[in-house]
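Hey, resending since the last one bounced:
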Amino acid sequence: MGLSALILGATGATGKQLLQELLASPQYSSVAEYGRRVTSSELITSGKDKLEQKTIDFEKLEESGLKDKKWDVVFITLGTTRNKAGSAASFERIDREYVINAARAAKSDDPSHRQKLLYVSSGGANPSSYALYMRSKGLTELGLAELGYSDTIIFRPALLGAERGESRPLETIAQTLIRGLSAISSRIYMPVTTLAKSMRIAGEAGTTGLPPATVHKAGGANAPFTLADNSSILTIANAFA
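The structure tokens again:
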């Protein structure tokens, strides 16, 4: 029997790709997409028969049904920006509190059930950073690790490259420049297709099944997690090509 997966944040740039990866993989027998919105069926190219979709209110997680199932792998690609959120307080509520609370709700109460938790953070994440975005990501990483999943893997990609449904001229220019520089260094750019593939693989293999040189131990004594930086993400995707 294959793995059961839950993905939170599947309508974002990375989440869209990850959902398609999970649905196409024979390693996952069931895939659940929970979120404020769900993916249109017209955008799903394969695996519709193993997909469950449900809209939930992150302010009312007790009504979400996240506790009703024993997920083998929980993927979180949920996130926002301060501009979208409208204020620093709203940003932190969505970007950190929603993420940690949802992961807590999805964690099984059965101590014998081993679950993996995989989260997309950001390069430069640091709980002590003066920058709101990087501090929030760093605090979210620690908050997730403290939940006590059997295996917590955090991905810190560099600038993500993806087609968006909105126009961001400055970001488009920056991505064009960084794509060129990525030929020199593997630390500054990450295609979302590569990130999604690496996450899908890590969900299947877990920390112990990944090439040892690609992952590092991070977090504190009470909140350990496995860290995959930009170079590691590329290596994982290529190692299982």
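The first helix runs from residue 13 to 24.

Sorry for the duplicate.
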